[in-house]
Amino acid sequence: MTDLHRLSIREMAEGLKSAQFSSRELTQHYLNRIAKIDDRVNSYITVTAEQALAQADAADAVLKTGNATALTGVPIAHKDIFCTHGIKTTAGSKMLNNFVSPYDATVVAKGKTAGLVTLGKVNMDEFAMGSTSENPFFGATKNPWNLEHVPGGSSGGSAAVVAADLAPFATGTDTGGSIRQPASFCGLTGLKPTYGRVSRFGMIAYASSMDQGGPMARSAEDCAYLMNVMAGHDEKDSTSINKEVDDYVANLNGTAVKGLRIGIPKQYFNVQGLDADVKARVEESLKKLEDMGATLVEIDLSMSEAYVPTYYLIAPAEASSNLSRFDGVRYGYRCENPTDILDLYKRSRSEGFGAEVQRRILIGTYALSAGYYDAYYVKAQKVRRLIQQDFLKAFENVDVIAAPSAPTTAYKIGANLSPTEMYLGDIYTLAVNLAGLPAINAPVGFDANSLPVGLQLIGNYWSESQLLSIVHQYQQNTDWHTKRAAIAEENA
Ligand code: GLN
């Protein structure tokens, strides 16, 4: 079969269970596609062909016994920020190019228990800091819709593998938009769960109070399958919440939109830099939801001007602390011939980290230093609380909040935006992480250059099932999520 990669996750799982094809055939199919196509996309850092085929054979044996779980034998790609036992985990950094984890991240372990087959580890912005996946060490990942454009970031490899059909779905992480923005740039569905819903154990830390893993796939239904694997309490992560997990697949329904009150923040649609095509597509999708029975309600999110400065203080502050462990002694890259311990630290860190990571460490260290702590870090924490309260007040009157996921479509590779221009591109995603809320991106059409546009829906805490259901119902009434880039139409 040449078109296995066109199946939805549900169809793939059904095909495996009814023995229309084996996990080995399916896995080999993806490995062939990777071998033929990924030279042009540059999405995989590591392809684990041998292990994948062994896992596929094991899955086929389980499938024969009739003891298979919902996803036994389905392939997946993991963002290279999740530790994988025995397989290199780089976090997209030269610093960790030689790091092989002695254990699996909880998300990876859960995937194994569910019978998923790991195809490999995919590219990202270094340590998840960035929005383009133009990685300084592993090279730029390309947007499958137009290879001259970026796939977004930091989970750009995860988005690119799905959009090019080099994996049926992928894990991503989102600290300030890194699931939603690449999903938007690549025409995919991506869910950033409530903080604490998915374990961070074994996920290399960027900004621990905001980092959250989640699924990236073509449809809300596909994401629901992966959420069923990823979500849940983990005693190895003290910030993971001990709260019953929904069955996200069983909860998908066709009744989520009727009567739904969608908040439209008046500050969000007049932002300078909001692309006219993006605005138009998002408004069309909201009109569609209105036709399906939703009510649009104007709301006030008066803290919106504070999102970018608040996030870009707190995230670097946490990053500077988290990344202090990479010192050339215990992990990863070590400079050659250090003259003394200080020289070892200095050169290992300046040779091992790329420019953006160094910039964040410098900003974060500055914000946390004795004379500036109160003026910057403490103040940002106070503003963070106000941003959260802004959302909670809005949710007294609406069920979800709509926004673009990004003000533009995918940038050109090498556009070389200044750091502040780049940070402004995160305007629509950061507040969700500051507040710990869940949010989803859904593809809603294309701009004049045939690049995808995404709608973001922000929900109240623990509303993942609701967000997935709204997008699922939207996708049953539209076909944007079924559109494929030309490169995905190629056969291996
Ligand atoms: N672009 C944002 C940043 O650079 C978000 C990244 C992320 O969510 N990991 O920090």
Question: Summarize this, please?
Answer:
The protein is of the alpha+beta class and about 500 residues long.
CATH superfamily: Amidase signature (AS) domain
Number of strands: 13
The count of domains is 1
CATH architectural category: Alpha-Beta Complex
Terminus-to-terminus distance: 11 Å
Return the CATH class: Alpha Beta
Taken in chain order, the helices and strands follow as HHEHEHEEEHEHEEHEHEHHHHEHHEEHH
Element layout with pairings:
Elements: H1 9-17, H2 23-41, E1 44-47, H3 49-65, E2 75-79, H4 106-113, E3 117-122, E4 134-135, E5 139-140, H5 156-163, E6 170-173, H6 180-185, E7 189-192, E8 213-217, H7 220-230, E9 261-265, H8 276-291, E10 295-299, H9 307-322, H10 341-352, H11 355-368, H12 373-394, E11 400-404, H13 419-424, H14 430-435, E12 439-446, E13 452-459, H15 464-476, H16 486-489
Parallel strand pairs: 2-3, 9-10, 9-11
Antiparallel strand pairs: 1-3, 4-5, 6-8, 7-8, 7-12, 11-13, 12-13
Helix pairs in contact: 2-3, 7-15, 9-11, 9-12
Bound molecules: glutamine.
